[in-house]
C-alpha cells in the first residue's frame, strides 16, 4: 500500500511545474501500480497494448517526453537535491530529442566559464551518450564531487557545430532573483526560477529599489518551477487576477486565481521572454499579456504548457506523469505554441530594446534634439543655451547620461562662459553602446526666467 505523497519538488537542474499528490493503491507489483496511475491520470488515454509492456521503461517510451520513470535510487537522489546547494556545472536543462537542452547558464558558473550557452544541447557526458535517455540520467552523469572534472560534448544549435569542453564541478547555489536600478530610475528584476523563495525575494528586491519610474521584469531562460509560485508571481502584476486555465481527464476545466502579494508593480511594466522561457514563465506571461498588464518583449516562448505529477510506487521507485494541460485564463493554447511577445526583438536585444522604449516614453514631454553618432569613448559634451544664463552650483540631476541597458553615468559639469556647460563623463563610454544625454529644466536665465522644458538627445559610441 502506498503512503500519501505530499513532498513538493523543485530540482536545481530541471524546473517543472508540478502538482504533487498521492493516492492509495492496492497492488501486488509496482508495475501494476504504474499501469493504474497511467490509466487513471495520464493526460491521454493509453492503449492496453502499451500498458501490457513488461517494464516501466518500455511503457514510458510510448508517453510524452516529460513523463519519466525513476528507480528507487534515482528518486532518492532527486529529493536529496531539492532546494539546496549541490555540486554541478550550474545550468538549467530540459529534455530534447537530440540530448539535454541547456535552458539557461547561471552567472559565474563553471558552465559559463567554459563558454556554454543557452540553446546548446549536451549529447555526451564523459563518453556516455545521453540521447534518448531520461534527463535525470544525464543530470546524474553531470554531477559529481567538487573539484572533479567532466568532459561534455555539445551540439551548438546557433552554428550547427559540435564542441567538447572539460568542466570542473563546483558547489552551486542557484540564484532565484537578481535586481538592479537601471538608468532613468528603472527597476530591473530577473527571476531565474519559480520556487518557494521567489515571492519573498521579489518583494525584497522591490523594497530595496523603492520608488522607480517603471519596471522591467526578466523571465528569459527561466525554465519554470512550482505552479503555486506562478500564481504568486502573476499577482505582482496589476489587474492580473486569474493565473491559468487547467484541463485534464479527471475534472472539468478550471480557472485558478493568482495569489496577491503585499506589493504590486506600479507604473509602466515590461516583461522579457525568449525561446527558453518555459512552463511557469509561460503561464505568467500568457496571463499578463491577456490583461495587458505589461508589454512583452523578446521572442516566442518555449511552448511547454503541461503539468507533471509524481506518483511513488511501493518499491520506492516513482513515475512523473504529464497529467494536465494549462492555457491562458481565457483559453489560449500554450503547449507546442508558446506565448508571442507584443514586441519581437532579435535574441540578446530584449533588455536594450525594452529599456530604450521605456526611457523614450518617460522623456515624452522633453524636446528631442539631433542625435550624436560615432562619438569617441572619451567624449565631453558641450551644451549650449540660446541665451545667457545665471549659473550657480550645478546639481547632480541638472544633466544626466543614461546608458541604454545599463546604469546612469556620473558627469562632471562646468560652465564655459555665460551660455555653455561642459559635461564630462567619469570614465570612458562603452564602445558600440547607446546613451541618452538628458538636460533637465533646472537652470535660470540671466533675465530671471526658468527653463520651462527639458530636452534630450541620443548618443551612439564608436565600436
TrEMBL record:
Q: Which residues form the signal peptide?
A: 1-27
Its keywords, alphabetically, are: Hydrolase, Protease, Serine protease, Signal
Q: Does the keyword Cell cycle apply?
A: no
Which intervals hold domain PDZ? 79-143
Q: Which PROSITE patterns match?
A: PDZ
Give the protein family: Belongs to the peptidase S41A family.
What name does UniProt use for this protein? S41 family peptidase
Native source organism of the sequence: Litchfieldia luteola
Amino acid at each position: 500500500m502506498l503512503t500519501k505523497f505530499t513532498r513538493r519538488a523543485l530540482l536545481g537542474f530541471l524546473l517543472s511545474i508540478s502538482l504533487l499528490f498521492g493516492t492509495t493503491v492496492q497492488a501486488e507489483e509496482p508495475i501494476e501500480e504504474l499501469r493504474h496511475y497511467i490509466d487513471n491520470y495520464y493526460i491521454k488515454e493509453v492503449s492496453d497494448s502499451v500498458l501490457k509492456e513488461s517494464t516501466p521503461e518500455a511503457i514510458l517510451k510510448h508517453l510524452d517526453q516529460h513523463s519519466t520513470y525513476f528507480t528507487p535510487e534515482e528518486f532518492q537522489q532527486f529529493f536529496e537535491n531539492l532546494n539546496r546547494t549541490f555540486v554541478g556545472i550550474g545550468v538549467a536543462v530540459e529534455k530534447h530529442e537530440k540530448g539535454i537542452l541547456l535552458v539557461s547558464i547561471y552567472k559565474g558558473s563553471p558552465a559559463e566559464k567554459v563558454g556554454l550557452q543557452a540553446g546548446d544541447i549536451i549529447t555526451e557526458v564523459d563518453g556516455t551518450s545521453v540521447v534518448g535517455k531520461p534527463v535525470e540520467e544525464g543530470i546524474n552523469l553531470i554531477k559529481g564531487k567538487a573539484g572533479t572534472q567532466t568532459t561534455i560534448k555539445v551540439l551548438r544549435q546557433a552554428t550547427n557545430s559540435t564542441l567538447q569542453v572539460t568542466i570542473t564541478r563546483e558547489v552551486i547555489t542557484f540564484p532565484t532573483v537578481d535586481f538592479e536600478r537601471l538608468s532613468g530610475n528603472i527597476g530591473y528584476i530577473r527571476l531565474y526560477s519559480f520556487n518557494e523563495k521567489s515571492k519573498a525575494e521579489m518583494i525584497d528586491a522591490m523594497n530595496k529599489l523603492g520608488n522607480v519610474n517603471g519596471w522591467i521584469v526578466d523571465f528569459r531562460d527561466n525554465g519554470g518551477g512550482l505552479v503555486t509560485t506562478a500564481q504568486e508571481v502573476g499577482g505582482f502584476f496589476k489587474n492580473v487576477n486569474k493565473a491559468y486555465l487547467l484541463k485534464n481527464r479527471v475534472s472539468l476545466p478550471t480557472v485558478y486565481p493568482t495569489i496577491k502579494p503585499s506589493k504590486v508593480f506600479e507604473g509602466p511594466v515590461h516583461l522579457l521572454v525568449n525561446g527558453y522561457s518555459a512552463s511557469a514563465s509561460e503561464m505568467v506571461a500568457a496571463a499578463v499579456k491577456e490583461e495587458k498588464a505589461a508589454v512583452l518583449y523578446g521572442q516566442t516562448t518555449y511552448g511547454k504548457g503541461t503539468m507533471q505529477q509524481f506518483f511513488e510506487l511501493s518499491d520506492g521507485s516513482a513515475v512523473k506523469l504529464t497529467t494536465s494541460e494549462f492555457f491562458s485564463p481565457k483559453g489560449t493554447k500554450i503547449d507546442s505554441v508558446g506565448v508571442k511577445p507584443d514586441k519581437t526583438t532579435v535574441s540578446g536585444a530584449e533588455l536594450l530594446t525594452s529599456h530604450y522604449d521605456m526611457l523614450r516614453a518617460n522623456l515624452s514631454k522633453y524636446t528631442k534634439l539631433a542625435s550624436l553618432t560615432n562619438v569617441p569613448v572619451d567624449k565631453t559634451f558641450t551644451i549650449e543655451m540660446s541665451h545667457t544664463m545665471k549659473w550657480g552650483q550645478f546639481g547632480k540631476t541638472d544633466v544626466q547620461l543614461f546608458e541604454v541597458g545599463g546604469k546612469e553615468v556620473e558627469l562632471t559639469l562646468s560652465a564655459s562662459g555665460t551660455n555653455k556647460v561642459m559635461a564630462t563623463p567619469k570614465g570612458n563610454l562603452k564602445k558600440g553602446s547607446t546613451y541618452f544625454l538628458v538636460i533637465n529644466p533646472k537652470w535660470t536665465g540671466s533675465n530671471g526666467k526658468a527653463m520651462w522644458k527639458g530636452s534630450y538627445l541620443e548618443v551612439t559610441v564608436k565600436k
